[in-house]
Amino acid sequence: LRPLRRMGEVAAGVSAHSLTQRLPQQHMPAELADLAQAFNAMLGRLDDAFQRLSAFSADIAHELRTPLSNLLTQTQVTLTQPRPLEDYREALHSNLEELQWMAQLVNDMLYLAKADHGLLVPKRETLVLEDEVDALLEFFTLLAEDAHVNLVREGTARTTGDRGMLRRALSNLLDNALRFTPQGGEVRVRIEDGVRLSVENTGEGIPAALLPRLFDRFYRADPARHEGSSEHAGLGLAITQSIVRAHGGRICCESGAGWTRFLIELPKID
User: Fold this and answer.
1) In the chain, what is the straight-line distance between the N-terminal and C-terminal CA atoms, in Å?
2) Is residue 244 over pLDDT 90?
3) Where are the extended beta strands (E) located within the chain?
4) In angstroms, rounded to a whole number, what is the distance separating the alpha carbons of residues 56 and 41?
5) Torsion angle defined by CA atoms of residues 23, 16, 54 and 246, in that order, rounded to the nearest 10 degrees
6) d(CA 270, CA 260)
7) Virtual CA dihedral for 268, 175, 255, 112, nearest 10 degrees?
8) What is the rounded CA–CA span in Å between residue 129 and residue 153?
9) Cα 85 to Cα 75, 78, 92, distances in angstroms
């Protein structure tokens, strides 16, 4: 029974500050080897989840610190002395922008929390993908024209899914593609029956070492990231991945030869 007592000692020593202990599997009797392996795997999952939760909490504080500081500073400066009505109006408009961004950040975090707990359940309806993509491309047309970027859609397919959720995922990808496509470049949405859908754009590629982290929360591949940016918080791709997974699909990114490509694979219609 010595191996079981050792297992009990390790279990008793597990805490949020001590998740690195593991059972020595090489000294376990054959009858307990599988149990020891499962126990160590459980500790590994707990350690990984705790590390991600700690990093997520730190990132949230990091992102909210700057807009909160801006709100406090601007409000304090505005109240230091009597000012014309127009100055108060301008200060309120500026504060409103920061508050709207913070509200969107909180909504996005709640959305991801629902996805983590399996509460993101898509509705199921038959969708004509080319129609959904064309509607989004029409929405982005003015932005593309201002940036002198060409929008192209190729292929047709049908799938089942939640129209609102899939539009949100594709909208995030199109927004990213437009931001990183140089003038005179092209953003192409390619649909293949099967169902495979890719959003591709010309421009400077993403280093291979960064590709695995693109879907991490609050991660920005751009090294010139600004904390508390009121434009992009680095949650768009994480939300897109959650939506695709909720539909039973998968998403990945490829980059090279002057193109960056986000590829989505969705289940076939039965």
Assistant:
1) 53
2) yes
3) 125-128, 150-154, 158-161, 186-192, 196-202, 250-256, 259-265
4) 22
5) 60
6) 31
7) -60
8) 11
9) 14, 11, 11
Q: What is the pLDDT of residues 117-148, one digit of tens each?
A: 788 889 989 999 999 999 999 999 999 999 99
pLDDT interval class at 224 (50, 70, 90):
very low
Structure tokens at 71: 């709100």
Between 242 and 64, where is the model more confident?
Answer: 242
Closest CA to 21 of 9, 33, 35: 9
Amino acid at 214: L
The Cα diameter of the chain in Å comes to: 82
Spatial CA neighbour of 130 closest among 158, 151, 167: 158
Cα torsion 257, 261, 267, 269: sign: negative
The whole-number pLDDT of residue 51 equals 80
Q: For 246, phi and psi rounded to 5 degrees?
A: -65, -25
The predicted model scores a pTM of 0.75
| CA distances, 118 to each of 22, 56, 113 (Å) | 29, 18, 9
Q: What is the C-alpha radius of gyration for the chain, rounded to an integer number of angstroms?
A: 24
What is the C-alpha separation between 188 and 236, in angstroms, rounded? 19
CA distance 46 to 198: 34
Looking at residue 140, what is its pLDDT? 94
